[in-house]
Amino acid sequence: MKLLQLLADHVKVGVPLLWNVRDRDRNLLLSRGNVVQSEAQLQALLARGMYVDEVEYRSQRAASEKPKPQAFDPIWLWSDLQTKLSLLMRENSADPEFLDKLGQLSMLMQLLIERDADVGIFVMMQADAVKYAVSHSVHTAVIAELIAKKVGASDDERRTIINAALTMNLGMFELQAILAAQATPPTDQQRAAIRAHPARSVAILQQAGLKDVDWLRAVAEHHETPDGKGYPRGIKDISVAAELIRHADVFAAKISPRATRSALPPNRAARESFLSMGGQENPMAALLVKEVGIFPPGAFVRLANGEVAIVLRRGQLASTPTVFSVTNSNGVPYIEPVRRDTARKDFTIDSIVPRQSVMVRVNPSRLYGYDKG
């Protein structure tokens, strides 16, 4: 029996209990249907610790939920967008409407980020290695859009950057999925395909009828570097869009899990990216750290009181994001995530918690308030 801890909000004085309530040792305290008679009794029970069987709680909740009208849910829209993009990338130029469909998806992405950028970052941080080929390009586009907007790029310029980020690896889409799951280093043949993929991506886009020179150039140059040590051509004069996408690409790769390694903690990924981008000498470096944050939405953190929480929104200060605790200090899941004020001493963030070590599942749509059920 797995237990969930009850909080004051879950039990009302004078209202019949919906579940059997137990203590931390699983001893029955109150049977379902019993009533807590007074506030004093409730506080005494809470101090002792009130727990409920997870299966019992979930079953009761599922039975009580009623169908509701469809509402705006960006979590679902991000998932649907990635599914459609994955299918489109596999068809690419064979689909006569490839560019039109891609344009619709990039426009939707821009609107989703405009509506709630924190959700876009949350989705990025919660991604797994299974759909790496498509999710990586989406994450690169999200980061690039956030930075491009801050440097004053127009809507059309940012749309071009998003389109380029989504199609930068078009020439190695299937190979990228293989490499993400591959436990051995790339073969010589795979390395050759990696070096050739910018030009291959450009060729596919041109075959699809693309004439946008800025888009094509950004794709062609997204692995070139100002010192001439990039590939495939080793040029130094690269477009601003290509440089922005390259930085976003590298950061997105650092925070993404692979078959052979876990994702880097976001604060470490931000620090490494900041330094590799030239630190204070490169305005994009500071913007990347500021826009994504050292404790970005979707990251799990340990608070000063020992609780594990999930970050929901960036704060005015990098160190004070909005978080919801999902377990108590003993690792027992809360029946529902509890909001904590990270500006308070007992709720300050102590460290990042690796996602793979957190066994609690959360409903992001409900946390963000998009699912009213």
Molecular structure report:
It holds the Pfam family HD_5. The chain has 373 residues and is α+β, with helices and mostly antiparallel strands. It has 14 helices and nine strands. It has three domains: 3-64, no CATH class; 74-292, Hypothetical protein af1432; 300-367, no CATH class. The strands form three sheets. It has a five-stranded antiparallel beta sheet with strand order 8-7-6-5-9. Strands 1-4 form a two-stranded antiparallel ribbon. Helix 3 packs antiparallel against helix 4, helix 3 (74-91) crosses helix 6 (132-150) and helix 4 packs across helix 5 (117-125). The longest helix has 20 residues, at 188-207. The model has no long low-confidence stretch (mean pLDDT 90).
Roughly how much helix do the residues carry, as a percent range? 40-55%
- Backbone shape: elongated
Count of beta strands: 9
Largest sheet: 5 strands, antiparallel
Strand residue content: 5-15%
Termini Cα gap:
26 Å
Give the integer mean of the pLDDT values. Answer: 90
The number of domains is 3
For the record, the CATH class of the largest domain is Mainly Alpha
Return the structural class: alpha+beta
CATH topology of the largest domain: Hypothetical protein af1432
Global Rg:
24 Å
Tell me which CATH architecture of the largest domain applies here.
Answer: Orthogonal Bundle
* Helix and strand element order: EEEHEHHHHHHHHHHHHEEEEEH
| Helix count from the secondary structure assignment | 14
**Considering the protein shown, what is the CATH homologous superfamily of the largest domain?**
Hypothetical protein af1432
Strand order of the largest sheet: 8-7-6-5-9
